[in-house]
Amino acid sequence: MNTERTLKLYNSLSGEKEVFQPLVPGLVGMYVCGPTVYSDVHLGNCRTFVSFDIIYRYLLNLHYKVRYVRNITDVGHLTDDGEDRMAKGSKVAQLEPMEVAQKYTVGFHEMMRIFNTLPPSIEPRATGHIPEQIDLVQAIIDRGYGYESNGSVYFDVMKFNTENPGKYGKLSGRIIDELFTETRELKNQEEKKHPADFAIWMKARPQDIMVWKSPWSTGFPGWHLECSAMSTKYLGQTFDIHGGGNDLKFPHHENEVAQSEGSCGHAPANYWLHTNMLLLNGKKMSKSDGNTITPEQLFLGESEHIEKGYTPMALRFFMLQAHYRSPLDITDHGLESAEKGFRRLMDNYKVLESLTPHTEDFDGSESATDRALLDLIEAAYSGMDDDFNTAVALAALNEMGGYFHKIANKQLDAKELAPWVLERLKTVYHNFIFEIFGLKEEADGGSDGTVDGLMSLILDIRANARAQKDFGMSDKIRDALAEVGIAVKDGKEGVSWAKG
Ligand code: AMP
Ligand code: ZN
């Protein structure tokens, strides 16, 4: 573990930045709510998972041994009108629910690969943990916080709140009366003791197709239950970090806290981290209300919301430019400047790599340039230590880049840079770009330009097909390239391509 650095993180539970102290020194247990696999991931989802990827990468960079658990929700997440999202997806596509889950899980993994995110240590599925969820319902009943009603089991929020004052509503910062009037679970109200009670086991209705036997009825677990069951199984009753988008604070995370406290008397996580939303046209990007853009549409520039396509790394850079707790609005202007910023950063790196140490008459002293650059290195790491502020770290890396260019252009004497500072800069720059930020070179042409040459040939053939109005052939080429991970974009400035 890197003991010299102090990591602070903003804990939604206290509403403050706190010094991070893991339960076991050197080890971190982190649980992040994963996707509901009933349709393609949208860019908003990707922002949240890229943000946690950077958090994961920085923890690894500090030499923590991290167990990162991110689940797949493939049952129990209901729509507002009470239908299981998976079952709804399967009806629409005329597929088995498990075919739907598989299709979109594969798509999700592919998108995570394109964005260069690291896979989690464990990726459990809700449907693979039904016995654990049934045990948890039983534990909640045994401790007096769950009651059965007509085959369903509900969490007794009122009793929990009376016996554990201040615990319900603490995470989402809502007062209990507000929660009672806001609860979305309007169906089955007559079965509940109180409108705020939420289902932890639901009795199946005739139309439900994803069902399991339980002591109470044939049915399925409540949505919030899976994360409590799987985080406990893989990380223990209390673990270090729990994360997700801030739209999950209520009811999902609030109810997870209640379920853990209600089943074993312990809080699930010491630190709750919430990412802010990706916006489109100033509004939350969301699948359900159509204000959305898929990553593919963005790569190919095929959306009414944008003027041209952007590469996956330009997008990752776009996300890095904002702190994960700030909202981020998709605009062409923002994406274009991220595209330029990404290229500038990679260019800085190339210039830095080309600098050679000035060893002959080095007198061992530290120059003002050395000190300025060492301060910038410290600023970059301090930015990350301050609740993973990638925007601050990026600004420091950019400022360092200014020095590299000056030295390369001989505006600044190379003697200004001590050999050991140059070595350190090379290590730090590489570490930030590729390890912490998880960026990578795009359009890898190989040193001899073979790939570039071949791509130019293929795109010429495609242009020819289009000129002859052979759109079938043109699409076939584009699809074949997509299959090997190359996205072709027909933008206003012509055709371009990027490797995912
Ligand atoms: P879902 O598949 O809807 O369960 O969402 C998966 C993850 O994406 C959750 O952590 C959500 O909070 C997050 N999420 C959903 N919409 C957005 C958005 N517009 N911006 C950022 N994260 C989002
Ligand atoms: Zn969850």
Structure description:
The structure is a single chain. By secondary structure, the protein is of the alpha/beta class. It contains 16 helices and 15 strands. It has a 4-stranded parallel β-sheet with strand order 4-3-9-10, with helices on both faces. A 4-stranded antiparallel β-sheet has the order 5-6-7-8. Helix 1 links the parallel strand 3 and strand 4. The radius of gyration is 26 Å and the shape is globular. The structure holds adenosine monophosphate and zinc ion (ZN). Zinc ion (ZN) binds next to loops. The site of zinc ion has 3 residues, from loops.
Strand order of the largest sheet: 4-3-9-10
Let me know the largest β-sheet: 4 strands, parallel
> Can you count the beta strands?
15
Report the portion of residues in β strands. 5-15%
Quaternary assembly:
single chain
Q: How large, in whole angstroms, is the Cα Rg?
A: 26 Å
Q: Look at the structure and give the mean pLDDT.
A: 90
State the shape: globular
Task: Report helical residue fraction.
Answer: 40-55%
